[in-house]
Design goal:
By secondary structure, the protein is an all-alpha fold. 76% of the residues lie in helices and 0% in strands. The N terminus and C terminus are likely disordered.
């Protein structure tokens, strides 16, 4: 018997869209299908076990569908970067507070986030390296203030991120004290302490690293696919730190340091001269 084949017609309007619009639509469709597949996979695990709280299912949905929401919000982006920093921080805290609520009430399938830092050589080594990195950052800032050549070099490196990094003192303070701390705490709790541990308990460590890092990268899709790849790699690094140290505190501190580093480099490099830095501070 001959089977009837459906014809898929392409709307003429899609042909006339600009390249930017096509790129945005393609990203949105990809994220939609990706999130649906991921959510379905998680639901398979959830209902197979039958022990996950409905609020935890809601939490997983918030994590997976966040990139789509973020792309929609990006269309209404404010020119005021301080406001944007506060808005992003607020949005990140929504699923994080739900996570903390579930964890504190014993309604989470992940029982241990690794809040205790044990006196092990791994933790001592990593904490020492992090301290060295902080000292290096302070010395580098001092060098930037006194070297026009170094400022020019760093300015060119961060030119592509000027719209999302601080260039004024107020922006720097909000970025450093609120956004960087929020990103470090929220994203590490969501992606490493929770999502990585959840996937690891069902399908193994390698898959947990790859999947949790991929979703972490997609949280930054509003910056483009290149940034998705970069942050996915960073996510895998944070997973490695989480595994190596056995606690979530040190990955949080590393994440905060990475964000603060980027913000301060951009801020000090964008100053016109070392004298203007001194006057402003």
């Amino acid at each position: 018997m001959r089977k009837n084949k459906r014809r898929v017609e392409v709307e003429p309007s899609t042909i006339t869209r600009t390249s930017n619009e096509k790129f945005t639509v393609s990203r949105f469709k990809f994220l939609k299908h990706f999130s649906q597949l991921k959510f379905s996979a998680y639901c398979g695990v959830i209902f197979q076990g039958g022990s996950m709280h409905y609020l935890e299912i809601t939490l997983i949905g918030m994590i997976l569908f966040y990139p789509i929401v973020d792309l929609i919000i990006e269309k209404y982006k404010s020119k005021n970067k301080t406001f944007e920093f506060l808005k992003i921080s607020f949005i990140m805290w929504l699923p994080t507070l739900l996570l903390i609520h579930l964890f504190s009430n014993g309604q989470l399938s992940v029982a241990n986030f690794g809040f205790v830092i044990e006196n092990s050589w791994q933790n001592i080594l990593f904490a020492s390296l992090l301290l060295i990195a902080i000292i290096y950052l302070l010395l580098l800032i001092r060098s930037i203030q006194s070297s026009e050549e170094l400022r020019t070099e760093i300015k060119s490196k961060f030119a592509a991120y000027k719209d999302i990094l601080p260039v004024t003192k107020n922006e720097m303070l909000v970025f450093t004290l609120i956004l960087s701390v929020s990103a470090g705490v929220c994203e590490e709790l969501l992606f490493r302490a929770y999502l990585f541990t959840l996937i690891d308990s069902h399908i193994g460590m390698v898959a947990a690293i790859l999947l949790s890092s991929a979703v972490f990268g997609l949280w930054h899709i509003y910056l483009g696919w290149q940034e998705v790849i970069r942050t996915s790699i960073m996510g895998a690094v944070f997973c490695g730190v989480f595994i190596f140290t056995g606690n979530i505190i040190l990955p949080i501190l590393l994440h905060i340091f990475v964000d603060v580093y980027s913000g301060l480099m951009c801020y000090f490099a964008m100053r016109k001269s070392s004298s203007s830095i001194i006057q402003e501070s």
